[in-house]
Design goal:
The longest helix is centred in the C-terminal third of the chain and has 51 residues, at 106-156. The protein is built from four helices and no strands. The protein has one domain (14-20, 29-156). The protein is an all-alpha fold and 163 residues long.
Protein backbone atom coordinates (compact mmCIF):
# COMPACT_ATOMS: atom_id res chain seq x y z
CA UNK A 1 0.00 0.00 0.00
CA UNK A 2 1.16 3.55 -0.64
CA UNK A 3 1.26 6.34 1.90
CA UNK A 4 -1.76 7.97 0.29
CA UNK A 5 -3.82 4.81 0.66
CA UNK A 6 -2.78 4.49 4.31
CA UNK A 7 -3.93 7.96 5.33
CA UNK A 8 -7.37 8.49 6.75
CA UNK A 9 -7.55 12.19 5.79
CA UNK A 10 -6.94 14.16 2.63
CA UNK A 11 -3.65 13.63 0.76
CA UNK A 12 -0.73 15.71 2.01
CA UNK A 13 1.48 16.24 -1.07
CA UNK A 14 3.57 19.04 0.52
CA UNK A 15 4.25 17.22 3.79
CA UNK A 16 7.80 16.17 2.88
CA UNK A 17 8.71 19.67 1.64
CA UNK A 18 7.45 21.34 4.81
CA UNK A 19 9.07 18.68 6.96
CA UNK A 20 12.46 19.38 5.33
CA UNK A 21 12.03 23.13 5.82
CA UNK A 22 11.16 22.73 9.51
CA UNK A 23 14.21 20.49 10.00
CA UNK A 24 16.36 23.15 8.34
CA UNK A 25 14.91 25.83 10.60
CA UNK A 26 15.63 23.72 13.69
CA UNK A 27 19.25 23.35 12.58
CA UNK A 28 19.50 27.11 12.00
CA UNK A 29 18.10 27.83 15.48
CA UNK A 30 20.58 25.45 17.08
CA UNK A 31 23.47 27.04 15.20
CA UNK A 32 22.32 30.54 16.16
CA UNK A 33 22.03 29.57 19.84
CA UNK A 34 25.57 28.13 19.78
CA UNK A 35 26.87 31.30 18.12
CA UNK A 36 25.25 33.43 20.82
CA UNK A 37 26.81 31.22 23.49
CA UNK A 38 30.23 31.84 21.96
CA UNK A 39 29.64 35.60 21.85
CA UNK A 40 28.38 35.62 25.44
CA UNK A 41 31.52 33.75 26.51
CA UNK A 42 33.75 36.33 24.83
CA UNK A 43 31.82 39.24 26.36
CA UNK A 44 31.95 37.57 29.77
CA UNK A 45 35.73 37.24 29.48
CA UNK A 46 36.21 40.87 28.46
CA UNK A 47 33.78 42.11 31.12
CA UNK A 48 35.75 40.19 33.74
CA UNK A 49 38.95 41.75 32.47
CA UNK A 50 37.50 45.28 32.49
CA UNK A 51 36.07 44.86 35.98
CA UNK A 52 39.27 43.29 37.30
CA UNK A 53 41.52 45.99 35.88
CA UNK A 54 39.05 48.69 36.87
CA UNK A 55 38.86 47.43 40.43
CA UNK A 56 42.65 47.47 40.65
CA UNK A 57 42.78 51.02 39.27
CA UNK A 58 39.93 52.14 41.51
CA UNK A 59 42.32 52.75 44.40
CA UNK A 60 43.73 55.79 42.61
CA UNK A 61 40.35 57.12 41.38
CA UNK A 62 38.06 56.07 44.24
CA UNK A 63 36.19 59.38 44.33
CA UNK A 64 35.28 59.54 40.65
CA UNK A 65 31.58 58.81 40.04
CA UNK A 66 32.02 58.27 36.29
CA UNK A 67 34.62 55.60 36.97
CA UNK A 68 32.36 53.87 39.50
CA UNK A 69 29.42 53.92 37.08
CA UNK A 70 31.74 52.39 34.48
CA UNK A 71 32.63 49.59 36.90
CA UNK A 72 28.93 49.06 37.58
CA UNK A 73 28.28 48.79 33.83
CA UNK A 74 31.10 46.24 33.61
CA UNK A 75 29.58 44.14 36.37
CA UNK A 76 26.12 44.38 34.77
CA UNK A 77 27.64 43.35 31.43
CA UNK A 78 29.23 40.30 33.04
CA UNK A 79 25.96 39.33 34.73
CA UNK A 80 23.96 39.62 31.49
CA UNK A 81 26.59 37.68 29.56
CA UNK A 82 26.52 34.94 32.20
CA UNK A 83 22.72 34.80 32.04
CA UNK A 84 22.86 34.51 28.25
CA UNK A 85 25.58 31.88 28.49
CA UNK A 86 23.72 29.67 30.95
CA UNK A 87 22.20 26.58 29.36
CA UNK A 88 18.49 26.67 28.70
CA UNK A 89 16.08 23.77 28.37
CA UNK A 90 15.44 23.69 24.69
CA UNK A 91 12.42 21.65 23.64
CA UNK A 92 13.10 18.09 22.53
CA UNK A 93 10.93 15.38 21.09
CA UNK A 94 9.61 12.91 23.64
CA UNK A 95 10.61 9.81 21.70
CA UNK A 96 8.91 7.35 24.03
CA UNK A 97 5.52 8.72 22.94
CA UNK A 98 6.31 7.74 19.33
CA UNK A 99 5.40 4.13 20.13
CA UNK A 100 1.75 5.20 20.15
CA UNK A 101 2.08 6.05 16.46
CA UNK A 102 3.39 2.64 15.32
CA UNK A 103 0.09 1.59 13.79
CA UNK A 104 -0.97 5.03 12.52
CA UNK A 105 -0.92 5.81 8.79
CA UNK A 106 2.42 7.19 7.59
CA UNK A 107 1.12 10.63 6.61
CA UNK A 108 -0.69 10.98 9.94
CA UNK A 109 2.51 10.09 11.81
CA UNK A 110 4.55 12.53 9.72
CA UNK A 111 1.98 15.26 10.33
CA UNK A 112 2.01 14.73 14.11
CA UNK A 113 5.81 14.80 14.12
CA UNK A 114 5.77 17.93 11.99
CA UNK A 115 3.36 19.65 14.38
CA UNK A 116 5.61 18.75 17.32
CA UNK A 117 8.69 20.06 15.51
CA UNK A 118 6.94 23.30 14.59
CA UNK A 119 6.03 23.81 18.25
CA UNK A 120 9.66 23.09 19.18
CA UNK A 121 10.95 25.64 16.64
CA UNK A 122 8.53 28.25 17.96
CA UNK A 123 9.66 27.70 21.57
CA UNK A 124 13.34 27.62 20.59
CA UNK A 125 12.96 30.87 18.62
CA UNK A 126 11.66 32.57 21.77
CA UNK A 127 14.60 31.29 23.83
CA UNK A 128 17.14 32.30 21.16
CA UNK A 129 15.62 35.81 20.92
CA UNK A 130 15.91 36.19 24.71
CA UNK A 131 19.51 35.02 24.58
CA UNK A 132 20.24 37.44 21.73
CA UNK A 133 18.77 40.39 23.64
CA UNK A 134 20.91 39.55 26.66
CA UNK A 135 24.08 39.30 24.57
CA UNK A 136 23.30 42.59 22.80
CA UNK A 137 22.65 44.39 26.10
CA UNK A 138 25.82 42.88 27.54
CA UNK A 139 27.92 44.16 24.62
CA UNK A 140 26.41 47.65 24.96
CA UNK A 141 27.09 47.69 28.70
CA UNK A 142 30.64 46.46 28.13
CA UNK A 143 31.31 49.28 25.65
CA UNK A 144 29.81 51.80 28.09
CA UNK A 145 31.92 50.36 30.91
CA UNK A 146 35.13 50.68 28.94
CA UNK A 147 34.34 54.25 27.88
CA UNK A 148 33.28 55.37 31.36
CA UNK A 149 36.27 53.77 33.06
CA UNK A 150 38.65 55.51 30.65
CA UNK A 151 36.86 58.86 30.99
CA UNK A 152 36.67 58.53 34.78
CA UNK A 153 40.30 57.51 35.00
CA UNK A 154 41.44 60.43 32.87
CA UNK A 155 39.28 62.87 34.83
CA UNK A 156 40.63 61.60 38.15
CA UNK A 157 44.25 62.16 37.19
CA UNK A 158 43.60 65.57 35.67
CA UNK A 159 43.02 64.57 32.06
CA UNK A 160 45.59 63.92 29.36
CA UNK A 161 48.90 65.68 29.82
CA UNK A 162 50.62 67.33 26.92
CA UNK A 163 54.39 67.62 26.97
Amino acid sequence: MTDQAETSGPPLPSLDVIEAQVASERATMTSHAESLDNKAGVVLGFAGLVVGLGTTAQLSVATDLIFDVGLGCGVASAVLAALAFLPRRYPVLQVHALRELLTAPTDETKLKLLDAQIAMVTRTATLVKQKGRRVKASVILLAAAAALIVIGGLAAVGGPRHV
